[in-house]
Amino acid sequence: MSKQHFVFLDGLRGVAALSVAVLHAGEFFNISTQYSHAYLAADFFFLLSGFVVAYAYDDRIGQHIGVNQYRIFLWKRFVRLYPMIFFGTLMGFGVSIIGSLQPTHHLNVIATAALLPASLVLAPLGLLFSYDAFPLDNPMWSIFFELIANAVYGAAPKTSFALNWALLAGAALALFAVSYVFGGLQRVGFHNFGSFAAGFVRVAYPFAAGVFIFRLGLHNRSRIPLILAEILVCAALLAVLWMPLMADTWIYDGVVVVVIFPLLILSSIKVAVWAPAAGFWRFIGKLSYPFYIIHVPIIRIIHQINQHFLIFHIYNLTAATVSILLSVIISYIVLKVYDEPTRLWLTSLKHERIGNALSELGSAKAGVNQ
Known about the structure:
The protein is mostly helical. Helices cover 75% and strands 0% of the residues. It has one domain (7-369). The protein has helices at residues 7-28, 41-61, 67-100, 109-120, 140-155, 161-181, 193-216, 227-242, 249-270, 275-309, 316-369.
């Protein structure tokens, strides 16, 4: 049976991805983002992913999962995520090679060449070179932890609600501790060995909270038929990411991830989507993943062109806007020309192998019966 699709959740993923891109563009082009906590969009992605993955797979996995089931689950997650990992890594590699020809660029040719094979398998080799974990395309750090969370979810047995609450409370306390130690979550997950290790704590609470929200079963109840609810929830997400209300960053980040984001997810699954807006939410939701993966290489190449290849530099705000618009356009092209066809091919490849295995099994049985 086909499951209901949460179109508005897809849309919020797109809004969060755009917020991250605006933050990165501001950093590259020296546009002030001092009040931005858009880096928390990664935590929103983790929570959203926990809910969506549980919604898609919880009833299929059951209480205990066999080896074959687990392999199929991992393959499905691989098909969903890896094509853009491959594309984004190659794109980041090309931009880094161009940038390494400039004397002020932080990556040299040798380091860039060494990082390519490691990045293709999501190995955080950049840390050994004293860079970020994935300097060819920084957003890959969150995809790394996304895959780790998926793998743990698929292998972990379901537990009682009491134990779920206890584990969730422990993960929340650990998240606050990490936020306190690092002065907020902005660098947690990729900046150095310590922050990379803390990334396992950063992903644990939001992903587990997303799974638990699904297991509470609130999504099965009636929805709120209020058009303004979509606008209010979307505005609340943007306000949280761009207008922090606390001076202490570590407290703010912890409260947003532990309390506010789960409330936003709960609100989102209760919203009855206004029919004319459904197409828009669906579109930006589909675009969000390729956009998130490739926006940093595009921003970097526009920055390099503006700094080194133009006789007259354009204004930073204009360059930042151009880079984001190009990211949207190229993301759509990549989605339609590469990502969707590749995922379809990988899916059909798996189905073909399963079909061949069943045919061989049938032939073997026929031989035995004869």
